[in-house]
Specification:
Layout: H1 9-44, H2 46-96
Helix pairs in contact: 1-2
């Protein structure tokens, strides 16, 4: 028997929802980091303040990148699930349609 892959569409949908929520949290975290960057520069001053602020900005950029990619994967999973369900419904409809009677 050929090995197969089993996909549970409800679980894929749940994963997509979790990834979407993660993307939103990461976006919030990125905004917090960007806001904190200025405070770090002012609080520490000098070279240390500049470096801490730059690190906060870099961390925000990383969080934004991961958020964007998590959101893209979530959207892909949703699209694939919708397409699969639609194809499955069409196939099922074709199988249950009454055959035409010969005339």
């Amino acid at each position: 028997m050929e090995p197969g892959i089993t996909v549970h569409l409800d679980e894929v949908g749940a994963l997509a929802a979790q990834l979407s929520a993660l993307a939103a949290e990461l976006d919030d975290g990125a905004r917090t980091c960007r806001f904190a960057a200025g405070g770090l520069r002012e609080a520490l001053g000098g070279e240390e303040g500049w470096r801490a602020g730059a690190l906060a900005i870099a961390w925000a950029s990383l969080a934004e990148t991961v958020a964007g990619r998590a959101g893209a994967v979530a959207a892909s999973l949703v699209s694939a699930t919708v397409a699969y369900r639609g194809t499955d419904a069409s196939l099922a409809e074709g199988m249950t349609a009454a055959p035409e009677r010969p005339r």
